[in-house]
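Researcher: Good morning. I'm working through a list of sequences from a screen, and I'd like to move beyond sequence-only analysis. For each chain I'm collecting a predicted structure so we can compare shapes side by side. This is the next one on the list. No need for commentary yet; just the structure.
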Amino acid sequence: MLGPRGLPDTEQEKVVARPLVRRLSRQLVFLTFLAAAAGGVATTPPASASAPAGEPTVRVVQAKPTNKTPRQLRAFWTPQRLREAIRNSGTDAAVPPAGGVGGTSTSRPTAVAGPGSAAPAAPPKNSAALRGKAATAELAAAVTASRRVSNVAAWPMSAVGRLFYTDATETEWFACSATSIATNNRNSVWTAAHCLHAGPGGDWRRNHVFIPAYSNNSNPYGWWYGVSVLALDSWIEDRDYESSDLGALIVVPETGSANLQDTVGGWGHNFRGGTAYTNARSFGYPASGYNRPDSDFFNGEYMMYCEGNTIDADNNNPFDDRIRMSCDMGGGASGGPIATGVGSSNVQIVGSNSHRDGDANGNYVNNHLYSSNHYNNAAVVINALNS
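Model: Good morning. Structure tokens for this chain:
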């Protein structure tokens, strides 16, 4: 996750170890903890995406992130661990070598993975998420200094929440942001891949808990427990920030048969590879940010947002189609959605908060917030969730 301070040298070495093919005119502070990741997690055989002969392909790798039951996870996540996870969300950062973004692929895979967009799924009419004032009325254009969302429990903000997880040894606790996304299984959560897997040389994060509409330790729709996580091999093997810092969880409630989508709704998606979106909004739970004191971010306890237009991160680089918007959210906002249509009935995820520009000391240097391009790679993950 994004943070103003550098990782220990051993952690920074994990970032720079792989060769870089793409050379860009910036250094980046990545939104990732890069702590020692989980070990001993069984994985299922990855599913391959079809692609024309000679073109690169990506595969979804699915894993079980914990051997605990939902009730055991509830007991594991004590109030002290939750507080420490939120504190940690703003402290770790990694700086790659000068001019590099990371990853080794030279282009986005061209595999056609399926429909590029899907409509949102609002919760049923009798859901608490649809009662009361809608949460979108407060949003205004060109919000680059993030503001607090005051009504997080109303649709569509009810679908956004906190994602807690541990490292491999279950001795360090961390937090990202995430969103309920509309899928056939009705229990899917969209986030950044680095909240699920550490990348090359690492392993899966563990013990995921998603708390939709989290606000200052409140959980109006309960806790939802990760029973399966999905990331791409292009992230796991190459740490591809351009198109693969994205992934998903499948969750279950602590008890009963309720599903997440009927409880808080599910945002739609637009994974057609675009970079220029008007009136886009980014949401997350930052504990730090650019050019502001950490105290402005309420210790990461509240959902915040930015609003504005997005652009292509580097129009001069054909191999870099990341999405960029002006927003000061930092550590803790990782995995939060960048979406269009939040003020309408057609809210669609177009990206997820991934990383920021930074200097060699891990300090943010501008107001640029980046997402991996959500195109075929993102559609491959959606297809796996819908299968």
